[in-house]
Design brief:
The protein is of the alpha/beta class. Helices cover 41% and strands 14% of the residues.
Length: 318
């Protein structure tokens, strides 16, 4: 069995991320990893770190706003320093858990990119790229996916829009105009970002060094979580009610499953962007495999990060 080393997880303060952190921290000695918690600095980050320490984990917090690529680069510098300096054990897993669904696609990140695409995809691409050389094989990168990119009966019934793919540079551009685009546009942006994660996972596996396996975890539909905190109050209330229905996923149930993806031997050989729906290895839809789109996303991501100044070596900005 591989020594658990260190797991870095983004978005650790609430819901899925918080319960994944506590599940990892609550593992027995010899199976418990060190934890690097990357999230917004403040009371919530301090609280989850204290809870994890109380369960026996060695924990370091790294304050970071994923809507700012400068913050992400700085977080990567801090993580590399902790790893290289021996403050934590070797980096064995990165869980790209943080995510958002902006209710207004006109909203831009600190770097001028559409907020949903910026946080869900670009921030993690920056962080992972900056940390690839810091992994110790065998290592895992776990991305958070969703089936919303493809409509089915239930998604149509609930008016969940599917992805409408475009060139990634276009997807990164905030909507224009004075009138708010509405929840339909917000849902499309979210589904596009989740389809981008699948494309990125496939190409990342081709680009990553030997011994780093890339997979995608789908926690199931979790209505009422903070993901939709920008949605209208009535929609949030309906989501909370739906979240109490039997069989609907919850952070309490899916968090430990995400922890297992990062640590359990069962998933040690998953690679090539393999997609796991809670506990089941699942085939994605044909639209989620497209070599041309995957290559273009990789190229465009590099362009967008460079445009934001992210291609410079962290720490050299003036």
């Amino acid at each position: 069995m591989t020594e658990p080393g260190t797991v870095l997880i983004t978005g650790p303060t609430r819901n899925l991320g918080r319960h994944a952190v506590l599940a990892m921290a609550g593992r027995p000695d010899g199976q418990r990893p060190d934890l690097l918690l990357v999230g917004r600095a403040g009371r919530d980050l301090t609280a989850v770190a204290d809870e994890a320490r109380a369960l026996g984990a060695r924990v370091h917090t790294i304050g970071c706003d994923l809507a700012s690529l400068a913050d992400v680069r700085a977080a990567a510098v801090t993580a590399r320093g902790l790893i290289a300096g021996g403050a934590v054990r070797p980096l064995r897993a990165l869980v790209a858990n943080a995510g958002t669904m902006s209710a207004d696609t006109r909203r831009a990140s600190a770097d001028g990119y559409e907020l949903t695409f910026a946080v869900n995809h670009l921030a993690h691409a920056q962080l992972i790229g900056d940390l690839l050389a810091s992994f110790t094989a065998p290592a895992r990168i776990v991305l958070i996916g969703s089936n919303t990119y493809q409509a089915n009966f239930w998604r149509k019934l609930l008016h969940v829009p599917e992805a409408k793919w475009a060139d990634p540079v276009e997807l990164a551009r905030p909507a224009g105009g004075d009138q708010a685009p509405g929840m339909e546009a917000s849902g499309v942006a979210y589904s596009n970002a989740k389809l981008a994660i699948l494309y990125y996972a496939h190409e990342l596996q081709r680009q990553a060094g030997a011994g780093i396996n890339v997979s995608v975890f789908e926690p199931g539909w979790m209505p009422g979580t903070a993901l939709g905190r920008g949605a209208p109050a009535a929609l949030q209330a309906m989501s909370r009610a739906l979240g109490r229905m039997p069989g609907v996923s919850t952070p309490q149930r899916s968090g430990p499953l995400l922890a297992a993806m990062a640590l359990d031997e069962r998933w040690a050989n998953l690679r090539d962007g393999a997609f796991v729906l809670k506990t089941k290895l699942t085939e994605v839809q044909p639209v989620a495999h497209d070599r041309n789109r995957e290559r273009r996303l990789w190229e465009a991501t590099a362009e967008l990060l460079e445009r934001a100044g992210a291609s410079r070596t962290p720490g050299t900005e003036k």
